[in-house]
Design goal:
Length: 67
């Protein structure tokens, strides 16, 4: 086989998610490289505490229950 046909076979294997094993005798799933990218912009966390506080302020507690 020529070098170009080897390259074509390797390219096809990569598109299928395969690579040659360490001993070069079989095809195995590719080892995926995982890269975690830091978030460049801060994430705004929205708290629902204020809306709960507003609802609780509207309640009136009496000796027999809520009014």
């Amino acid at each position: 086989m020529s070098t170009s046909s080897h390259q074509k076979i390797l390219a096809q294997a990569r598109t299928m998610g395969l690579e040659l094993s360490d001993d070069g005798k079989s095809w195995v799933p590719m080892k995926k490289l995982v890269v975690k990218v830091p978030i460049s912009t801060p994430v705004k966390v929205v708290s629902h505490h204020n809306s709960l506080t507003k609802k609780l302020k509207l309640m009136v507690f009496t000796p027999i229950g809520l009014a």
